[in-house]
Amino acid sequence: MEQQSLFRNRPFIFLFIGGFLAIIGFSMFFMTTTWFVISDLGSASSLGLILIAITVPRILMMAFGGVLADKFKKTTIMFSTSSIQGVLLVIIFLLNNTNQLTFGYLIILGFFFGTLDAFSGPAGTSLIPKIVQKNQIKQANAVIQGLGQIGFVIGPIIAGSVMEFAGVTTGYLVSAIIVLLSAFFMFPPFLKEGPVDNTIKQTPLKDLIEGFSYVKASKFLMTGILILITLNFFAFGAISIAIPILVETYGGTPINLSYIEAALGVGMLVSTVIIGVVKIRRRGLTSIAGLIATLIVAIAFSQIPNLYILTALAFLIGFTMTFVAIPFFTSAQEDTDPRIMGRVMSIVFLAMNGFDPLAYASVTLLVSRGFDIQLIIFSFSIVGLMIALAILWRGQTFRNYKSTY
Predict the structure, then answer these.
(1) What are 96-119's pLDDT values in tens digits?
(2) What phi, psi does 131 have (nearest 5°)?
(3) Which architecture does CATH list for 1-195?
(4) Distance between CA atoms of 147 and 15, rounded to whole angstroms?
């Protein structure tokens, strides 16, 4: 592969456009469904069940998604999942258009939609090292992560605007079109993936066990996964669910909520751009420092009752937490055996995404039991900070890791 700019690498361009559109479509579907359940079905209590049906299968099937990504062409998996998700959204649109979209249909279709997403994530991340050179992996991750953050902001804006002027039915139609368009950009001949690296014939269970054994044998991967779990449970997950509660507690309005959410996303976007430009050799130390900084800001976030200062702190949380994930993520892609890349990435993905729902449930349960939200976030942040400091002290292999790229 000749050295060339990422933005002249056609397979990479098609990958990040397809991924960007998929995120927009997913976030549109998520917001449209949320509004439909609350406004049209008139059952806010049912919303949790539908969101669980969408998110939990995605988490549970993530490891098997990695097995599939190592067994088959990643481009075929991504194209197939996006195409089927687009078809599911078309079905939801047709059902809603004929006033036949019920809670039961949404549970079933949401379950399959979320399950499919578990296969596309590991396939996409493990494809990056196959279509860019090793010294471009960090920049490629920064571009894709940055676009991902933009997508999660743009998707709800588009969904809200479409529903405001054309209704929920049109919202489902637009999300279906966007997801199908993402499948077009993921068409395998456009991405030009090489041959499958995993040629060992064994059962899926043995493949799964081999993936976990590989991760367990690596102190670097185990420490990095612990760092991601700490970040997503004690900091990001807890704060995400706490933000609307804090806004209401401090007498804010929906506009204050939007400011804080936007500041969080902008902070992540700014740091993503910096990571894409600046060479970071001490990636292990960078991840630990980013985790400690995030948790320190989270402690301040739990104590300051001013919504404008909280908006600035949300920016800092988004800014610092990106320095935790991308350096580790990139090093894992650079150093992992390509034959087992999909399984390793699926486990990393599980650490990144699997603990958010647990944080949501924990914070919600504690609030319902009468605990003060500020005390909850403070306690979570303190525990997370203790874990981070222990990693800094004990995680010598991770702390001293240096990248050659």
Answers:
(1) 999 998 888 988 998 898 888 888
(2) -120, -5
(3) Up-down Bundle (1.20)
(4) 12
Residues in the chain: 405
∠ Cα 383 318 57 (to 5°): 75
Q: Residue 70 and residue 340: Cα distance in Å, rounded? A: 6
Which residues, at least 6 apart from 113, have a Cβ–Cβ distance to it below 8 Å? 29, 54, 85, 88, 89
The DSSP code for 163 is H
Distance between CA atoms of residues 340 and 332, nearest Å: 11
Share of the chain above pLDDT 90, in %: 32
| Every domain of the chain and the residues it spans | 1-195, 202-404
Which helix (H) or strand (E) element contains residue 276?
helix 254-277
Q: Which residue matches tokens 């001293």?
A: 400
Quote the CA–CA distance of 262 and 311 in Å, as a whole number: 9
How many angstroms separate the CA atoms of 103 and 38, rounded? Answer: 11
CA 229/CA 241 separation, integer angstroms = 16
- 202-404: which CATH architecture? Up-down Bundle (1.20)
Q: How confident is the model at residue 1 (pLDDT cuts 50, 70, 90)?
A: very low
Tokens of residue 236, six digits: 């990001």
